[in-house]
Amino acid sequence: MATTTAPPLSPTTSRLAGTRKRPSLGRASWATYLIAFTLVGICIGPVLYIIIGGFRTNAEITTNPAGWPSTWQFVNYSEVLESSIFWRQVANSVICGVFTTLGVVVLGVAASYVLARYNFSGRGAMYALFAAGLMFPMTVAITPLYIMIRGLGLSDTLAGIILPQIAFALPVTIIILVPFLRAIPKELEEAAAIDGASRLGFFFRMVIPLSIPGVVTVGILAFIASWNSYMLPLFILNNETMYTLPLGVQAFASQYSVDTARVLAFTSLSMIPALVFFSLFERRIVGGLSGAVKG
Amino acid sequence: MSDTLGEGKLAVSPSPEASVTGGDGARKAPSPARRASGPDWRKRFEIALLTGPAIIMFVAFVIFPVVLAAYYGFFKWKGFGPPTEFVGLENYLTIFRDSTFQDALQHNAVIVVLSLVLQGPAAVLLALLLNQKMRGRSLVRVLIFVPYVVSEVIVGTGWSLMLQTNGAVNDLLTKAGLPDWTVDWLSDPNIAIWSLMLIITWKYIGFAVILFLAGLQSIPEELFEAAAIDGATYWQTQRRITLPLLGPTIRIWAFLSMIGALQLFDLVYIIWGQYVAATAGTSTMATYMVVNGRNAGNYGFGNAVAVVLFLISLVIALTYQRFVLKRDTEGALTEGKK
Q1: A3 located within any domain
Q2: Domain that holds residue A161
Q3: For residue A104, how many other CB atoms are within 10 A of its CB?
Q4: Which of A249, A290, B107, B233 would bridge with B214, disulfide CB 3.0–4.6 Å?
Q5: Which residue intervals are annotated with compositional bias (Low complexity) in the record (chain B) (predicted)?
Q6: Do B210 and A289 lie within an 8 Å CB cutoff?
Q7: Do A49 and A190 reside in the same domain of the chain?
């Protein structure tokens, strides 16, 4: 393939070189601020409603659904935080997220390295195979996947969630990492070769350290996807002790449907990790997404 | 550093690329035979070692299930033991004769079209707006991305509470002096699909805006300067420069949005539950598949629906790729151009 020498596309390079601040067109007027402010309000309003609702009493929510807490109740939150069910679900979600992320990163970096820097016949086909995976989200495969996982004896186990999640996260991971790894200068590889490093040696000593920023991006994406995953756990986990948080939230919401305030508190607490991860790594996630979509 | 690089050009001949391109390969290689077979064998081993696990996982858990569905789809099968009752295309005929499926298919079509029509122009306008110099721009970007990061279960739980007949939305409308606007957001079949679109737009528009902002950042500044020198107005510049150059990003976003809308399951299933969605007019092919397949214990049928869903997505994806994405050499699915 003649494409090995093709220069990486601009989003990748600029991501590697650090985000370049670009002078942009036009200066914002008061109307811009107004629209931006309204937009932000619409976007975070419902989230704030959920969080603040957890500080209200059920009576207040019933009589005045859109109101402010008259006195801030902490009991809903403290009850959820004291319940062992909540923490067990957190633990299950953490286990799924961590192992999914590890698997995605290890398999994804290895495969992306080959796709980015080895020249062999069949590379295009291999890349196309993974890229095609983008077209088939889990929904189309879920029924047979459930039967397969059950056949492997993995129903009601976290491994039954983790393995498919790794597989389904590979396409995005590879599409983000390939241009990233291709952007590592060829000179570095040559210099390493002079110093006697084999290609595998170069991979372990140079590529892995240099790819850390890209790996963080795909890792965070995989973790958030796993943390929020609903359909797969719904099919695979029937035993409540194995529930992850999304299933837990839903079970809690239907079980305590009259206790709206507590449902809101439970729901609020379950979104914290994803929000924290996102706010810490927002730049990387956005950079990774635009890199993936633009090339 | 530059010295070592100079030598490096000569010294790397054992690597296949260098031996093919560089004329000095023969001098450095120990023997022609080793050069031909040794590194090549080793390279293949490395390729297999590094890509093998990923390929095995991907084929086992992504490709193989679809093949399995194609097989099970020909059986009437309750999911216990190996399927024995071969019924040929009966499951498929049942699917297409079922008016519930036709409804679901129609809902999917509406959701696909409305997602594109509602989110696309709005997101482009918002991206243009937010691409200006303003205070707190990065904070705005983070905050509009929050709905995308929050899980479907939370979005579904939160919005279904707010959209209840006596929920916060109707309460706010009443307080705002618009009591006539209060409706049964979730149960009125004429309105429920619009409530669903409201929630979908709320959840996914931030993603589109962020993508378009990233696309705007990669447009060369010189073009805007040139346009300004030529005396172009703001809107002329946007129409003649920004929009065409944002084209590839918009087309890929549209692709992701369509595929997502075809597969929609979580939000509908969480908000309307397994029985109500069909009567509220918000069922989708995916909820139909889960309700009539797994939940009803008809695994053969469920697999047939999975195949139909797969084929519809595939045909639309390939058509779109062939006729629309083809123009974008850097399209995410165009092989080899990465």
Answers
A1: no
A2: 85-294
A3: 30
A4: A290
A5: 28-38
A6: yes
A7: no
Both tokens assigned to B2: 């530059």
Mean pLDDT of B72-76: 85
Could you tell me where the DSSP H helices lie in B12-31? Answer: 16-21, 25-28
Which residues in chain A have Cβ-Cβ distances shorter than 8 Å to B303? 143-144, 147
Considering A77-91, A173-187, B14-28, B70-84, the range whose residues carry the highest mean pLDDT is: A77-91
Other CB atoms within a 10 A radius of the CB of residue B76 amount to 15
**H or E segment and range at residue A149:** helix A138-151
Q: For residue A16, is it within any domain? A: no
Residues A151, A34: one domain?
no
A17 within a domain of the structure (yes/no) = no
Higher pLDDT: B332 or A175? It is: A175
pLDDT band of residue B39 (cuts 50, 70, 90) is: low
A110 and B252 in contact by Cβ < 8 A? no
Indicate whether A135 pLDDT > 80: no
Please tell me whether residues A32 and A138 are part of one structural domain. no
Among chain B residues, CA nearest to A169: B58
pLDDT confidence of residue A12:
40
Q: Domain for residue A125, yes or no?
A: yes
Residue B169: closest C-alpha in chain A: A66
* Number of neighbours of residue B86 by Cβ within 10 angstroms: 11
> By the CB < 8 Å criterion, does B229 face chain A?
no
Burial profile B202-241: b = 16 or more Cβ within 10 angstroms, e = fewer = bbbbbbbbbbbbbbbbbbeeeebeebeeeebeeeebbeeb
Residues A104 and A141 in one domain: yes
Contact state of A144 with B66 under an 8 Å Cβ cutoff: yes
Distance CA B16, CA B35 (A): 8
162-201 of B, contacting A, C-beta below 8 A: 162, 164, 166-172, 175
pTM, full prediction: 0.80
| pLDDT, tens digit, 9 for 90 and up, residues A45-83 | 888 888 888 888 877 777 777 777 777 888 888 888 888
